[in-house]
Design a protein that fits this description.
- The protein has helices at about 1-25, 30-35, 45-65, 85-105, 110-165, and strands at about 35-40, 170.
- It is built from five helices and two strands; from the N terminus they run ααβαααβ.
- It is mainly α.
- The protein has one domain (about 1-170).
- α1 (about 1-25) runs parallel beside α5.
Amino acid sequence: MNFQKNSHRRLGVSLVFSLLLVTFCIGTGWAQSEMIIYPSKGQSQEQTEKDKFECYGWAKQHSGFDPMAPPTTSAPPPQAEAKQGGVVKGAARGALVGVAAGAIAGNAGKGAAIGAASGGLVGGMRRRDQNTREQQAQKQWEQQEVSKYTQGRNEYNRAFAACMEGRNYTVK
């Protein structure tokens, strides 16, 4: 069971890194990191590269975001809840209750069958609800992490562009 929790956690973390990488490459990442920089005052290629490097450092310090660092998460993924319900557990519990109720009514076997069926149904619904809650928590966490990454990246891009424009470059 501990293996399942660790596997689920690793899957969630790798999923987030994949989402961050996709966001980086498709969305805000490559499109904005590959800004078009034009030397408005005829700066040489060497000077442009020097200015880019210096603006990279300034923007990184100003924004607290390093576009060269691999994406990381700011919080651990949500913990999986202790497993609840389940069809088999629910059926077993229902059968026990049904036996007792059926014995009182005079037919323990019929009571056990009814109890097992209803207990299995309730147990299955509990398990499904728990899985839904866990999936929603995971999705919300992933969205928060991607949003934090995007905000940091956008702040870095704004700072980098301001630095380059301050050095007489046109940035688009």
